Amino acid sequence: MTQMFRAGMIGATRLVRAGRLGEAATVVKRGLLDDAAPPAARAAAPASLFDGMMSDMQDAFDSFCAFNPFTPPAKAPAPPPAGSAVGSFTEARFAGPAGSRPYKLYVPACAEAGIAMPLVVMLHGCSQSPDDFAAGTRMNAWAERDGFLVCYPGQTTAANGQKCWNWFNDGDQHRDRGEPALIAGITRDVMARHPVDPARVYVAGLSAGGALAATMGQAYPDLYAAVGVHSGLACGAAHDMASAFSAMRQGSASPAGAAATAAVPTIVFHGDRDGTVHPVNGDAVATQAIQAATVLREAEDGVAPGGHAYRRTRFLDADGRALVEQWAIRSAGHAWAGGDAAGSYTDPHGPDASGEMLRFFAEHVGPAAPRTP
């Protein structure tokens, strides 16, 4: 790879962050043509030599754009029934050395002063927002039923034009750097402002948010007791925009993100017809989560009531505790399983990813994490 090509990839990444995908595609195409041809032949190289390469790259851009429409969800979240108890859903902003981000926090009506509750941090996918993600996952309704706080960090268009978390940048894959530092900061901010049980703090996400959730588990095993990754990628699956598209299409042979100091229990969901993030990435997330532990493996096949068939594979430690639970959902695409159509990128057919994640989280209690880095 030439220095000129590397410079082109940096420029393309900046264009994608700004939402200028067509210009980014042109930059990548020009860079591939220049990099692949010998100097004397670059000017006259026939386009047919690069058709296959460019077709794959264009497909990657098309898939990326397909998950980043500019249209809002089809309908707004339904209002709660009249007379029902409803908690508060408020917006705040966290600022730290790595920058600032807004977030929304749901506090259920059942919350009592001074009584510590679990906290679930939910990371949305590209083009989504905290409100959209809350509606699609029904996580606020679950919080009312089970009694926990839900925090929804929000990505900004200034940081990424499509509001994707920048999971593919090396600077956003390590502890106390970039977006991991921001999400950890938001988590600690909520813990400082509200009574939170530090041993029951969890993080989950969809797609780009799922990739960042996997990174949070790797980088902050002392902060999060368990992780949920839906249609995401392993930490370190990519290091720039070009490798991100490659990982999305065919996975990454050896993710090279931040090394975990401890195995963090992880639950993974991935549709086997996901055309945006290849299902092999779900396997990579599970493998990365169990790499430090000796495990036993058991699998079962089932069908969700009125929903999809699935295979659930559990990876157990020597004591029979599930370190990793992986759901391969048959005939499902790139959408939150069992989600509500009030939010974008949801599949109303089960299994119910929200319910199963919360069940898995309840099975895992971590160490009492400190509230400061």
UniProtKB/TrEMBL annotation:
GO molecular function: hydrolase activity
Organism field: Lichenibacterium ramalinae
Top-level taxonomic group: Bacteria
A Pfam family it matches: Esterase_PHB
Keywords: Hydrolase, Signal
Protein name, entry field: Esterase
GO cellular component: extracellular region
